[in-house]
Hints:
homodimer, 252 residues, alpha+beta, Jelly Rolls, Arc Repressor Mutant, subunit A, 2 domains, 7-stranded antiparallel β-sheet, 4-stranded antiparallel β-sheet, 9 helices, 11 strands, 43% helix, globular, DNA-binding
Amino acid sequence: MANRVTVSMAQHRKPPSKVNCFACQHRIESDWSVLTDDEVSLLDRSKTCRKYLPGEYIFHEGDPCRGIYCVASGLVGIRKTDADGNSVLLPRLASAGDTLGYRPFLAGECHRGSSEIMEPSVICFIRGSAVKELLGHNPILGLQFLARAAKDLGQAEEHYFQSVTFSVRARLAHLLLVLKDRYGEVADDGTLSIELPLSRKDVAALIGARPESTSRAIRQLKEDGVAYFSGQTVHISAVENLVGELGADDHI
Amino acid sequence: MANRVTVSMAQHRKPPSKVNCFACQHRIESDWSVLTDDEVSLLDRSKTCRKYLPGEYIFHEGDPCRGIYCVASGLVGIRKTDADGNSVLLPRLASAGDTLGYRPFLAGECHRGSSEIMEPSVICFIRGSAVKELLGHNPILGLQFLARAAKDLGQAEEHYFQSVTFSVRARLAHLLLVLKDRYGEVADDGTLSIELPLSRKDVAALIGARPESTSRAIRQLKEDGVAYFSGQTVHISAVENLVGELGADDHI
DNA sequence: CGGGGGTTTGAGTCCGTTCAAAATACGTGG
DNA sequence: CCACGTATTTTGAACGGACTCAAACCCCCG
Lengths: 252, 252
């Protein structure tokens, strides 16, 4: 039902740039769910919200980290660029309810990547002092963050492992499997279709490959009947095939 | 003073497999430094210690995570293996004072890699219930772990980035730069030499490459006068050269 | 009906892998 | 101390995947 309300609101007007933490439905299933009313109130008072459009940046590599960001709606990625201009998107997209920049904040470091808006988004910034106060006040919040960090660390190590052992094609298949949970829809005939929130270039950056290589991998998957790309949407007849791309390649 | 006692003990006999947390000199510069005496006492009572020899495993991929491990001495690596038998060492070696397996424990997951002993080691196992109790009792410990996890996450993402953008040669150079802090020694003439605690195969697994490729990269570095390998020791005349391998390749 | 960016395709090259063989190091027993 | 067998490391040649550069294509928008 809450879903329905949101949808109808979206039809009337864009999400307001000033978000109310109490009303924020994402909060209750985020790390912030453990806060008391008083603490939520502090959180609410300590934040500033802003709308962003695709291509904009929230912060840049090397910027000092003065607090953390909370995605109220939209989608944002972390981009890292090396000296030669090679650019990579870290395989950790943040959407509504996700916290952004908590890693450098907690490690006491500068931002190590630039956060780039991929879809129109509303982002809340929470002052570092408030985060510190909340962490000191409510130990459970720290444990929430800890579990989150531990999960993200596992993901990151998994991605490292895959980048070293998987081909571009397998990494693409894996990306589709991840995106299907968030952007996939099952049609009446049971086939799965995913509406990618990303351009080809960004898909490439996400799997750590050039756009050309990604394009070829896309064609291969099409030729082998695994996934059919047309524009931003992907059609998949059997998810098992995608999974098969990861494990044992094709051994009898 | 506690320092002096430990050192003189080490001169007489091998480190005892039963380690005393109070006397452990690594504790004071680890996450556990924030514990009170009572808490250290609990820690001490809740642990079991064991000696391990190279090639042994502390735990295996898929094992349930029943607690965390503390490296009293030695060196251990985390190995991940895929369906085809490809094996990779995560670029996160644990030596004396480091905590092992805290990630799956805090994320509530099974072990995602096997921890393999690289040097003769003494490892303490701390019961999960005790860790939970300590975390609930002393919020600062949670924040310590949080900062640790945040740092490790940064490292992991950096390694992902490098695996995608760097060549084998550059990754090897980077590994040397990391190992020099722990295993490097500066000779009288100012040159640096590193005694690698790893076989070639393990060096290869650490940078995510085949031994053959690693061997060729080693030869290249030798031919270009950057680093001279002979057996397990590496001689480096100018560290700047190593650093140069990372950034802008050779642009004038 | 043109631009113009993003995407795809093609050809050539480079890097890293694979497979196989030689060389070196290492431990053990004579 | 040397000889021998094994395991590790290095080398070589051939292959393959991914990258580079360049051109063609497509789609969206003016």
